Amino acid sequence: MGFREETTEPDSDHAIAGAASGFITRFLCQPLDVIKIRFQLQVEPISRSKYTSMSQAFMLILREEGPGALWKGHIPAQLLSVVYGMTQFYSYNIFVKMLQRVPQIEHWSHTMNFVAGAGAGSVGTIISFPFDTIRTRLVAQSSNHQVYNGILHSCSMILRQESPRVFFSGLLPTLLQIAPHTGLQFAFYKLFTGFYKRYTSSTETNVYNSMLSGSAAGLVAKSIVYPFDLTRKRLQIQGFQHGREGFGKFFQCNGLLDCLTVTVKEEGMRGLFKGLVPSQVKAVTTSALHFTVYEQVLLLLKMLR
User: Fold this and answer.
1) pLDDT above 50 (res 5)
2) What is d(CA 152, CA 164) in angstroms, rounded to the nearest whole number?
3) Positive or negative CA dihedral for 124, 72, 16, 214?
4) Which residues contact 77 (CB under 8 A, 6 or more apart)?
5) Three-state DSSP class for residue 218
6) Which of 137, 204, 242, 283 to pair with 143, CA 20 to 30 A apart?
7) Residue 146 CB partners (closer than 8 Å, separation 6+)
8) What's the sign of the alpha-carbon dihedral 130, 132, 137, 139?
9) What's the rounded Cα separation, in Å, for the pair 244 and 16?
10) What is the pLDDT of residues 7-38, one digit of tens each?
11) Residues contacting 283, CB < 8 A, separation 6+
12) Residues 244, 194: contact at Cβ < 8 Å?
């Protein structure tokens, strides 16, 4: 497969394993995503914001909106995860095969994994991005001022009241984030699985190796590119002021550079890292599950052939 020296499984197996990985990971980690997005969209200092910590946000959402709010936007989020997971791992496998034809590429294995991961992340993002925009708006809206009643209603409202371009709002900062993020994730995953095998005398990438390596890779990669993730979320809610009533001051900006500038000006450098802790918790959890489920589904498909 893509993380080993040789790729022997059919390309369709990587697509199926990626889709399954995206589906399972999303279902289990959606509450962390909801809390992360709520933090990212707060403009006021944390001490004066509606949500002040992960535990406080979790309990407040449960009390004010009920358990279902922790899975707000889950259907478009699942579509996002399944499409992204399937496209990402399929593309990664294709890119690795292409790069393996480059002379002496074996001496640059970590670079190969980074380049293949960056390309796969970019392809997956472009194809699945409209689901991300819809998911963000469903999560962002106040329960007292509900604008959208689901994925189809949100699509028709955006098309009728705004424009199709809105589905790709924030795509540039997302690509600036996702290309290095996915590249680093794959590169660090390969690096950490290699360390594990070396120090445990293991020859296969087992569940423990996948969990530990995936967690570490997710944590490092997410921390490096986090400001672009925050910018993406803030750009995706532009024009959605009416759905944010009750959540405090609305963040207004025009494009990537303006978003970064306004954030630093009004909230300081720390503002670029709002929601970092829940994001790191989510990154550790999702990366561990993402790689582990992917590896195990691939093994299962191999056994069934």
Assistant:
1) no
2) 14
3) positive
4) 26, 30, 33, 131, 135
5) helix
6) 283
7) 243
8) positive
9) 37
10) 567 888 999 999 999 999 988 888 888 888 88
11) 218, 219, 221, 222, 223
12) no
Mean pLDDT of 250-265: 85
User: Which residue type, as a one-letter code, is found at position 296?
Assistant: Q
Distance of CA 52 to the CA centre of its chain: 23
Nearest by Cα to 136 from 174, 172, 87: 174
Angle of helix 11-40 versus helix 54-65 axis, rounded to 10: 90
Q: Please tell me the distance from the alpha carbon of residue 302 to that of residue 305, in angstroms, as a whole number.
A: 5
Of 135, 170, 171, 169, the closest CA to residue 154 belongs to: 135
Cα→Cα distances 72→27, 62, 65, 69, 265, Å: 11, 12, 10, 5, 31
Question: pTM to 2 decimals?
Answer: 0.70
Tens digits of residue pLDDT in 214-237: 999 999 998 888 888 888 888 877
Q: Classify residue 172 as left (phi > 0), alpha (psi -120 to 50) or beta.
A: alpha
How far is Cα 103 from Cα 88, in angstroms, rounded to an integer? 25
| Residue 216 to residue 177: CA distance in whole angstroms | 18
Two tokens, residue 227 = 């400001």
Better-scored residue on pLDDT, 145 or 21 = 21
Whole-number Cα distances in Å, 289 to 24, 27, 33, 222: 8, 11, 15, 15
